[in-house]
Automatic annotation (TrEMBL):
Domain Nicotinate phosphoribosyltransferase N-terminal: 28-155
Function: Catalyzes the first step in the biosynthesis of NAD from nicotinic acid, the ATP-dependent synthesis of beta-nicotinate D-ribonucleotide from nicotinate and 5-phospho-D-ribose 1-phosphate. Helps prevent cellular oxidative stress via its role in NAD biosynthesis.
Record gene name: LOC111483794
Family per record: Belongs to the NAPRTase family.
Region (Disordered) residue spans: 1-21
Pathway participation: Cofactor biosynthesis; NAD(+) biosynthesis; nicotinate D-ribonucleotide from nicotinate: step 1/1
Annotated GO MF terms: glycosyltransferase activity; metal ion binding; nicotinate phosphoribosyltransferase activity
Cofactor: Mn(2+); Mg(2+)
Name the record gives this protein: Nicotinate phosphoribosyltransferase
Every Nicotinate phosphoribosyltransferase C-terminal domain range: 434-545
UniProt PTM comment: Transiently phosphorylated on a His residue during the reaction cycle. Phosphorylation strongly increases the affinity for substrates and increases the rate of nicotinate D-ribonucleotide production. Dephosphorylation regenerates the low-affinity form of the enzyme, leading to product release.
PANTHER family noted in UniProt: NICOTINATE PHOSPHORIBOSYLTRANSFERASE
Keyword terms, alphabetized: Glycosyltransferase, Ligase, Magnesium, Manganese, Metal-binding, Phosphoprotein, Pyridine nucleotide biosynthesis, Transferase
Swiss-Prot/TrEMBL catalytic activity: 5-phospho-alpha-D-ribose 1-diphosphate + nicotinate + ATP + H2O = nicotinate beta-D-ribonucleotide + ADP + phosphate + diphosphate
Amino acid sequence: MDKVIGPRNGDPSGPVVDGPTNPMVTPLLTDLYQFTMAYAYWKAGKHDERAVFDLYFRRNPFGGEYTIFAGLEECIRLIANFKFTEEEISFVKQALPSSCEDAFYNYLRGIDCSDVEVYAISEGSVVFPKVPLVRVEGPVAVVQLLETPFVNLINYASLVTTNAARHRFVAGKSKVLLEFGLRRAQGPDGGISASKYCYMGGFDATSNVAAGRLFGIPLRGTHSHAFVSSFMSQDEIINKSLCSSDGLRTCEDFPSAVQTWLNKIQWLPSFHGTFGETNQSELAAFTSYALAFPTDFLALVDTYDVMRSGIPNFCAVALALNDLGYQAKGIRLDSGDLAYLSCETRKFFMAIEKEFGVPGFGKINISASNDLNEETLDALNKQGHEVDAFGIGTYLVTCYAQAALGCVFKLVEINNQPRIKLSEDVSKVSIPCKKRSFRLYGKEGYPLVDIMSGENEPAPKVGERILCRHPFNESKRAYVVPQQVEELLKCYWAGKSGKAVECLPALKDIRDRCIKQLEKMRPDHMRRLNPTPYKVSVSAKLYDFIHFLWLNEAPVGELQ
């Protein structure tokens, strides 16, 4: 269900927006220098001056040429409930120099975001460097206090969503992707956030129970090696009976039925030499788990030996369940040569189906885990494998290949005066003034270029040729005749301006948007190795203004 948002602070009659998912996200979740600047603005009488800030990033992560924007809803939850408590103000007072006037703390008591406006690209969209993900307008001191939490809430969210989308792209649409990263994530918030944003980026389920409750993400999980090795023999199984799926009959000694099937498998000519005696404690563990979960039996088969014990034991239990009308869910491989073992396992399953006439047995699900990442998925694809589902943890949730996205929050206008941040590194030069952003599509339906223009410039029109210029490189320019024009920035928080605002979509809808957006991208932008850079441009008028302001603000050197 979409969430309608409105100015709770400043308008008690407006719709109530829940606070941030993490209760640690409060007005104090910011850097000290935001408070020192707020005081300096207040002391100079500048605190209410109308400012415009852009939040964007400079480079796509993981060596790729696209990023997925995420974290917007948490930002809106923050500003909808942005209010200092007395305890927080007391702490700020202790942190700042004693010379700060008491009247400043009265000013903090009255701060909320009722005079702030937030414009953003829709969450779950494919985005590119330099194009503002979020534009925040409001009193400069208030917006400055939002800088750190906004960057914090968007930086990791967008990074891990992009990482998930890249894993999905390599795995392919037909594979099930499971996020198993909670135990290796950077703390509880890292784990909860990773589960949410990996789902947004295209994963199908999570092992994280708390995330399942909070966000409605499907849960998946079976058992560990500890469960298997905790059993010593079949004698430990006390309750041995199992009722059939239709409830009409009962197998009084299910472990014996399992053993009978194992004997039958051992005598099959097609398996002679493949295995001898299997590990009986593993068989006891599988049998016990099947008695507990007859409709959801999925076994971890690599505790002792996959092909000589795990797979035969699994098949014996699965066939005994089949006699009672149940269908085993599958197996999980957590070590070894996953390509080879998955192929051998599939052959084993298909032989069982053929020999015993059990329809569908050859297609039983094969899952794999074991420190998987983008590279190992790609390698498995090249080797050939029979894995249906991948459980991915450490490399996914920690974003092992890149630590941070590098979002920045830059002042682009104050009191209607455009501002620019200069640097000897041209990639760090900001693009000034309040802007509009558009995505231009070509004849084949793929996005061709994103273009930024001044707020008061006319929007690009379908079928009309427009000059797109690189913001800083004079020679890079091209004419585009768009077949579709999409305006990117939409109002998500109107404050007291009265403007219409976008609803915050449900997580499932954002996930669907992400998947559809990625399907629209040209394949050469998406490939893992040497992807084609996507073009980000400015209008001719904005290009001229950038360079005029650049020359106007840059000091002129003097040669001695």
